[in-house]
Write a structure and sequence with these properties.
Layout (H helix, E strand, L loop, with lengths): L4 E2 L2 E2 L1 E6 L4 E8 L5 E8 L5 H5 L7 E5 L3 E2 L4 E2 L12 E3 L2 E2 L8 E3 L1 H7 L3 E4 L3 H11 L2 E6 L20 E3 L8 E6 L5 H8 L3 E6 L5 H5 L5 E4 L13 H10 L2 E4 L1 H9 L4 E17 L5 E12 L1 H4 L5 E6 L5 E5 L5 E4 L15 H11 L5
Parallel strand pairs: 5-6, 6-9, 7-10, 9-12, 15-16, 15-17, 17-18, 18-23
Antiparallel strand pairs: 1-2, 3-4, 3-13, 4-12, 5-13, 8-11, 14-16, 19-20, 19-21, 21-22, 22-23
Helix pairs in contact: 6-7
The structure holds glutamine.
Length: 363
């Protein structure tokens, strides 16, 4: 059955952009749902389930440039958090029936269950060209045409309670304290696969809260929104970097930069996709990465800090990697854990382990 039809009628949905453009499509997902958010696009051909459940996408309306979304349904164990985090979904075509042996429910049914509105029948390539020209902008998804632009609510850091997660094996040697700004499940899983104990703490934690857990290393997670909104945690990072190995991923990378006096800026339309080439400036290697960010570290501002730029995005020269020379501290703007994307960067978890082992325990 065509899920967008009620009583034989297509339910229209309106996507109204901040610049005044309006796209009319067919309602899917939560049919009655209306939402404001930041309109972004991703070029990933696969991994829609991971994308939609990634907390870094909170308050964002995600446009998929790939024309057919939902074809392999929704499977157990793939979510990156326990719910759909994106505010809404824009697609050219939403597959009505999923075909995959692991699929337990269709994407459309999952969005309905999760009360997430979606719109299909949109020329997502045209929409993406507009976002590329004007930059990421606010938009609303409504059931009737709107003449007034509504503003999206500001990003909020998610507050998740402290949890202790144990690795499966007895021979646990490392204990990573993961500061959770909106962590993707696969970052935790990537550490656990390496037999590492992980304790997840909230960004309200103090240096003392973290130090008394006796970590072998600290992981600063990914997360939604503007990194400058997390200024309360920067002094904690400054103290942590005196004592522990640190690995920052995406938002965590931006926060490491800010804590050391660098600046971040909002990109025009960000990097969201699974084929971003990155060049390692230290050995010349180029590898393909999965990315999802709308802010970036200002390369010039790094010159005023003790940090060193270790990697750049090949197309637009965005800062993709940093390290603190002489200390076991590094960060990347891309996602080394990304499950639907390339695995070229997965070895960074081993690099983190090597740094932790090379460091004398200070606590
Ligand atoms: N994936 C992330 O951690 C994103 C970081 C930040 N919210 C940005 O958009 O740049």
């Amino acid at each position: 059955m065509d899920v967008s039809k009620i009583g034989g009628l297509n339910m229209k949905k309106y996507l109204t952009l901040e610049n005044g453009d309006v796209f009319v499509g067919t309602a899917c997902g939560d049919l009655g749902g209306e939402i404001n958010g930041e309109l972004v696009f991703t070029t990933s051909m696969t991994g829609y389930q991971e994308t939609l459940t990634d907390p870094s996408y909170q308050n964002q309306i995600i446009t998929f440039t790939y024309p057919l979304i939902g074809n392999y349904g929704i499977s157990l164990g793939t979510n990156q958090s326990n719910k759909v985090e994106a505010a809404a979904v824009v697609v050219k075509e939403m597959t009505e029936q999923a075909f995959h042996y692991q699929s337990v429910i269709s994407l459309d049914a999952y969005l309905k269950q999760s009360k997430i509105p979606a719109i299909s029948g949109i020329d997502t390539r045209q929409l993406t060209k507009i976002i590329r020209q004007y930059g990421t902008m606010k938009a609303s998804l409504t059931n009737f045409p709107v003449d007034k632009k509504k503003s999206a609510s500001d990003h909020q850091a998610s507050i998740i309670k402290m949890a202790s997660l144990s690795a499966s094996s007895d021979k646990k040697i490392d204990h990573v304290v993961l500061v959770d700004f909106g962590v993707k499940a696969n970052i935790v899983k990537s550490l656990q696969r390496k037999e590492i104990d992980v304790t997840v703490v909230t960004p309200e934690s103090t240096y003392e809260d973290i130090a008394k857990l006796h970590p072998t290393g600290i992981l600063l997670s990914n997360g939604p929104g503007d990194p400058t909104a997390y200024s309360d945690f920067l002094p904690v990072i400054k103290k942590l970097q005196e004592a522990f190995p640190i690995f920052g991923i995406c938002l965590g990378h931006q926060l490491l930069a800010l804590a050391n006096g660098a600046k971040t800026y909002k990109m025009t339309f960000g990097h969201r996709g699974i084929n971003h080439p990155v060049k390692n400036l230290e050995n010349g290697d180029i590898f393909i990465t999965s990315q999802n960010h709308g802010y970036a570290v200002d390369a010039d501002s790094i010159k005023e800090t003790p940090l060193k730029v270790t990697a750049l995005e090949v197309n637009d020269k965005t800062v993709e990697g940093l390290r603190y020379p002489g200390r076991p501290i590094f960060s990347v703007q891309y996602h080394p854990e990304a499950a639907p994307g390339p695995h070229d960067a997965a070895k960074l978890f081993d690099h983190f382990i090597d740094l932790m082992h090379a460091t004398e325990e200070v606590h």
